Amino acid sequence: MKKKRLARVIIAAVVTTAILVAIIVGCGPKWGDGSANVNGSNSNSSNSASDNVSSNDNATQSNNNYATRITVKLPSYYLENMVFQRGKTLVVKGTATTSQRGKVVDPTQLITTISQGKKSASAQAKISKNGDFTCTLPKQKASLKPYSLTILYNETTLLTLKNVYVGDVFIAAGQSNMELPVSRVTDRFRDEISTDSNYPMVRYIKTPLLYNFHAPQADIPGISWQAMTPENVMPFSALAYFFAKDVYQKTKVPVGIINSSVGGSPVEAWISEGGLKPFPFYLNEKRIYESDDLMESMKKEERKKSHAWNVALFQGDKGMHEATPWYAADYDDSNWTETDLFTSGWATNGLNTVNGSHWFRKDFQVSAQQAGEKATLRLGCIVDADSVYVNGTFVGTVSYQYPPRIYTIPAGLLKAGKNTITIRLFSYGGRPQFVKEKPYKILFGKGQPEKGESEINLEGSWKYHLGAPMPAAPGQTAFHYKPTGLYNAMIAPLLNYTVSGVIWYQGESNVSRRNEYKDLLTAMISDWRQRWNKSDMPFYIIELADFLSPTDKGGRTAWAEFRKAQAEVADTNKNVTLIKNSDLGEWNDIHPLDKKTLGQRVAAAILIEMNTKNRK
């Protein structure tokens, strides 16, 4: 009897231990974590991805080796509202993992399905040893009706993306003229932007500024697809806005734009390490910044220097410390020098430019009708930065030279009779100036004097006083301009996404090295085509716009030579189109406003390419 009782105790202990082990290794169900919870006994296939189980493994893979619970993760651009490229197989890539020890994902049960109404198509996954999976779906027709994309594991839904479309997808890349938002061209296209911006079949992503010198990255965090609507349109690239609208109007199929551009970036920042092999100088420069510790110490030191410079500027500026500050409405500026904003005398000491702070004041008259109204203050463009006050009240600041100065004067601030505007201009290095042939005025109503609304002209005589003369501000290292950094973080993650072509607007930052631009841009085109596995991928190269004063002969010659290099790239590389732009510039603005004509030219070139390939 004792032996039988002992045997029962031993059996009970073994069973209990087995149950505990099963729980520990994760065989029990786990709900609410976004994973698939399935019965492993339904996995009756002994096959898996060829690079996951080799022919030298056990003769068959036991059903018990397959995970019953997995988690999948897709790159950030696989989101609702996305656009797949038409005419191509739809490739969905991601990672599939399981927390179950000793288990593997069954590729035959990881299924991606795309559906539209009653129509659907599915594909099994191919999975690598590290869990990367690929599902290749058949081509789908472009349609204004949405698709749904679903990923299942053993018939259990892991995720579903709705409002997925199939159309034409483009990479928009380069520097600030590609980045320039719709909000910056409203002066010229206000009516069109306000009345013709509802194109929900145009979808747009703007990638954030990221760089990496270690390796190509797999994903771009923090992105989302936005439909072109009046509510969303202002941050869109202005060039993308115009060409995407035009392409959609002609094709009536969805258009997707991935804008991966960075103001001021040189071409070498957009080329992979492999693509830069013929350029050892840039590879060696890249190696310098592979040390995160070095970059962090440089950033810390530069922040300290910048802070010290700004503290010295503030402490040395009498205009901020006198009993009555110089921006006050009742400040007495009668002993200040009279000047014109556009003369150069105030900016120099007779030989060299004066950096630091410069103060300007101007009195102007406001009518009884204008008094109390909300108004818009336009101060052209200023080199380098400024803070602005109206009647002693701060109304705005811009920290660098390129954006137009557009400040709101709140209702109730302007009074009938004399009013005063004060500008505190900051010069960090180089020659401080107000850019000529820009608007310097106060606008009332909707800011449309051409429609009879009133305005006050602010050109002419101003009062001037030097605030704090300073040495040039300490420089800041633009790490994101260094070779390969932008490619690794802002292009490499997109390589699994099928696109129709690339619109490339870049070059201003390479004009000083124009002798090497042909080779660098050719290398970049070859590099991207190879890594996208698309040897004939179309590139649309935007010619640099006209820029610089007619009196700047040397500068204009350099820009003309650069345009020749761009043309040579188009002439010597298959399927590269040069888009004329030299007739659309503004001599006093590196960011010309006419992105509409340029966008129409880009759209025309894209449509020619489409017709050539006879894509439907």
Q: Could you characterize the architecture of this molecule?
A:
This protein is an alpha+beta fold. The chain has ten helices and 28 strands. The protein has helices at 2-24, 176-179, 186-195, 238-251, 280-288, 292-316, 485-491, 517-531, 553-572, 595-613, and strands at 36-37, 69-73, 83-85, 90-97, 110-116, 119-124, 126-127, 132-137, 143-153, 156-174, 199-206, 226-228, 255-261, 337-340, 355-366, 375-379, 382-383, 385-390, 393-398, 406-409, 417-427, 433-434, 440-444, 455-457, 461-470, 501-505, 539-542, 576-579. Strands 3, 5, 6, 9, 10, 11, 12, 13, 26, 27 and 28 form an eleven-stranded mixed beta sheet that branches. It has a six-stranded antiparallel beta sheet with strand order 14-25-15-21-18-19. A five-stranded antiparallel beta sheet has the order 1-2-4-8-7, with no helix packed on it. Helix 4 (238-251) packs across helix 10 (595-613) and helix 8 runs parallel beside helix 9 (553-572). Mean pLDDT is 90; it is low at 1-7 and 9-61.
Shape label: globular
Ranges where pLDDT stays below 50 over 5 or more residues in a row are 1-7, 9-61
Our count of helices gives: 10
Largest sheet: 11 strands, mixed
Average predicted confidence as pLDDT: 90
Strand content of the residues, in percent?
Answer: 25-35%
Distance between the termini: 85 Å
Coarse structural class: alpha+beta
- Assembly context of the chains: single chain
Residues in helix, %: 10-25%
**What's the number of extended β-strand segments?**
28
Give the radius of gyration: 31 Å
Short account of what is shown:
The protein has 616 residues and is an alpha+beta fold. Helices cover 24% and strands 28% of the residues. The strands form five sheets. Strands 3, 5, 6, 9, 10, 11, 12, 13, 26, 27 and 28 form an eleven-stranded mixed β-sheet that branches.
